[in-house]
Amino acid sequence: MLQAKKIGYRNSGKWLFRNLDLQLPPGEVVGLSGKSGSGKTTMAKVLSGYIQPAEGLIELGGESIVKTVTKVAHPIQLIWQHPEQTINPTWKLSKLLEEAGASDDYLMEQLQIESQWLSRYPHELSAGQLQRFCLLRALLTNPSYLLADEATAMLDTVTQLKLWKLLLKLAEERGIGILAISHDSYLLDRISTRRLDFSKLAD
């Protein structure tokens, strides 16, 4: 179980959110919506260890996530809306993949990633191809949870649904919990077992 207990974050002295409580059982797909600028992306960064909360606790399996995470990959992986902003553009995909660990032929096949892509640079892939590659990198770390922050918003509707179908299949096979953050109510209704409103999670 992933739990956020009364977490808060502030920027330049101003609180973006406080007293945020969240529970995500393993293997569940939870949809999260809310107003732009309300703090959803910041919350996702806090949960995945990119930034630290100003207050509160984050626990995974009853243990503090800060104590759980050392030099190994973070058990909560964040999938960003703009994948090109999360990887080194001067590295070939093969080198980017090495950061995550050993490659996995099954995952590459399921995500329709061709081996010849690994000799290319990020800008040589389409948005959909690069997002699938970033999803591969996240899955290679064997995460307990995936936080998908508008992860398919830049793709057309058909490509979005195809990618989510693959993601849900892989998550079910591996028992991965997913928090899907999106403004797209239609998408969240299609993929989620339940929905949350960010405004009701925090002050």
Please give a handful of descriptors for the protein shown.
globular, alpha/beta, Rossmann fold, 5-stranded parallel β-sheet, 32% helix, 7 helices, 4-stranded antiparallel β-sheet, 203 residues
Strand order of the largest sheet: 6-7-8-3-9
- Total number of helices: 7
Order of helices and strands: EEEHEEHEHHHEHEHE
CATH class: Alpha Beta
- Shape, please? globular
Annotated CATH topology: Rossmann fold
Number of domains: 1
Gyration radius, to the nearest Å? 17 Å
CATH 2nd-level architecture: 3-Layer(aba) Sandwich
Q: How confident is the prediction overall: mean pLDDT? A: 90
Please identify the oligomeric state: single chain
Describe the structure.
The structure is a single chain. The protein has 203 residues and is an alpha/beta fold. It has one domain: Rossmann fold, CATH 3.40.50. It has helices at 40-47, 65-68, 93-100, 105-110, 127-140, 157-174, 185-191, and strands spanning 2-11, 14-24, 29-33, 55-60, 63-64, 76-79, 145-149, 177-181, 194-197. A 5-stranded parallel sheet has the order 6-7-8-3-9, sandwiched between helices. Strands 2-1-4-5 form a 4-stranded antiparallel sheet. It is globular, with a radius of gyration of 17 Å. The model has no long low-confidence stretch (mean pLDDT 90).
SSE topology:
Blueprint: E1 2-11, E2 14-24, E3 29-33, H1 40-47, E4 55-60, E5 63-64, H2 65-68, E6 76-79, H3 93-100, H4 105-110, H5 127-140, E7 145-149, H6 157-174, E8 177-181, H7 185-191, E9 194-197
Helix pairs in contact: 3-5
Short account of what is shown:
With 203 residues, the chain is α/β, with parallel strands linked by helices. The protein has a single domain (2-200), classed as P-loop containing nucleotide triphosphate hydrolases (Rossmann fold). It has 7 helices and 9 strands; from the N terminus they run E-E-E-H-E-E-H-E-H-H-H-E-H-E-H-E.
